[in-house]
Amino acid sequence: MENNKIGNYRWVICGLLFFGTTINYLDRQVLSLLHPILEEEFGWTNSDYGMITSIFQLSYAFFMLLAGRFVDKLGTKKGYAIALVVWSLGAIIHAYAIPIGEASVQFLGILGFGGLSISVTGFIVARLVLGMGESANFPAAIKATAEYFPKKERALATGIFNSGSNVGAILAPLTVPWLAHYYGWQSTFVIIGSLGFLWLVIWLIFYDKPEEQKRLSKEEYTYIQSDTVYDIHPVDEKKEKISWLKLLKFKQTWSYTIAKFLTDGVWWFFLFWLPSYLKNQFNLSGSEITLPLSVLYTMTMVGSIGGGWLPMYFMNKNTSPYDGRMRAMLIIAFIPLSVFLVQPLSDISYWIPVLLIGLAASAHQAWSANVYTTVSDMFPKAATASVTGIGGMAGGIGGALFSFIVGKTFDYYMATDNLNFGYTLVFSVCAVAYLIAWAIMKLLVPKIKIIKIEEIRD
Predict the structure, then answer these.
(1) Distance from C-alpha of 253 to C-alpha of 260, rounded to nearest angstrom
(2) How far apart are CA 275 and CA 286, in angstroms?
(3) Could you tell me which residue ranges the Major facilitator superfamily (MFS) profile domain spans (predicted)?
(4) 331, burial (CB in 10 Å: exposed 0-12, middle 13-18, buried 19+)
(5) 126 falls in which pLDDT band (50, 70, 90)?
């Protein structure tokens, strides 16, 4: 009843962020599902595919650092819109990877570089553009959440919009194999990549800053601005200029950044390598992987939303937002230990690894919903996208290194006819990453200290 009096337009914004994130992940997931087809057509090795995915992650990482600043300067509405146009075009040009590769190889030859095949080069260029655009999704979404939600609701809102990544991952195996079968892999990239332009129209119509939003009631606006207990930033932050160098001086920045570096690669592995895992370990491909992947990524939706709810349980017991989040994240960090059992139990049925990996992936999304929100717990709104971008860059670099090493590891153990051990090594790293990350975060920021705007002003 109270919410009805206040109004619920902030949840409309959360819905917009949810669908934007769904499209974001749907676009990046197409390649992993087409990997078996492209691998056979172009003769790729695991190292080739690892290099292609690493370039996406490096591009994502580098531009995420810039994206945070970009969104802070242009504002959420314009920044998100421009990013979506770039990543949608990046998704579409995958269809033209071969002519792009031919032109790029020629150009690299003139410069004295070479060695990569036309297909690998073409997909690297396409992934680079995709990563450039997609890098702004989370800085923009986190900033929008900080603008439209009081702190006690931000983890839940983040968990809901972040679950769009799971929906995108679910929709991909339901649609991509079918589209590829009937229309070919090139048309699949074009069709999926074009969806973003539909969302763009809705975004431009319904999103404005809260103070300019005509659809927002005065009561809801007051509620959004009601962080009287923890809000120590009474200054007007709309036009504040934030110094990156000053941000890097704070342990709070490094706490978030290291956590992203250590754990993002696990999610990238689950996202980009699972179709290949099901093919190599269980000889599943095409439409055969649709059901197990759909079940796995459906599980991650529960983790994303549940992870947003868990810290609220502690906050309702008068725990500060940061302390409540850290308690929730410690519980979540134990769940990925389940993947230690993936290879030992894989002989029983492929459903055992699928469910165990699904449990770990669900924990990652629960972790992600909270680690993102620690930024708005510790920093003023004017710095939220910038800090998110710094951490996102670290996460992308960590993911790129992990993906590159995974490709080399699988090729090495495949050559020695011991690929099972290669998977055991990789899953072991995934299992312990979160506990290590949590321990470092707690060591760096044992107690909450909120950074004041004047401490980071440029």
Answers:
(1) 11
(2) 9
(3) 13-449
(4) middle
(5) very high
Q: Helix, strand, or coil here: 242?
A: strand
Place of tokens 């931000």: 154
Q: How far is CA 46 from CA 25, 40, 43, 106, 291, in A?
A: 22, 12, 10, 25, 24
Of all residues in the chain, the percent with pLDDT exceeding 90 is: 40
Is pLDDT of 314 > 50?
yes
The more confidently predicted of residues 1 and 406 is: 406
8 A C-beta contact, residue 397 and residue 58:
yes
* Burial annotation 275-314 (CB, 10 A radius, 16+ → b, else e): bbbbbbbbebbeeebbebbbebbebbbbbbbbbbebbbeb
CA-only gyration radius of the chain, Å: 22
Q: How far apart are CA 9 and CA 157, in angstroms?
A: 13
Nearest to 330 by CA among 431, 448, 440, 435: 435
Annotate 1-34 with DSSP letters as a single string. -HHHHH--HHHHHHHHHHHHHHHHHHHHHHHHHH
What's the rounded Cα separation, in Å, for the pair 131 and 56?
A: 5
Which residues, 6 or more positions from 449, have their beta carbon under 8 angstroms from its beta carbon? 252, 378
DSSP annotation of 225: T
DSSP secondary structure string, 310-364? HHHHHHTTT--HHHHHHHHHHHHHHGGGGGGGTTTTTTT-THHHHHHHHHHHHHH
- Name the class of domain 2-211+239-451: mainly alpha
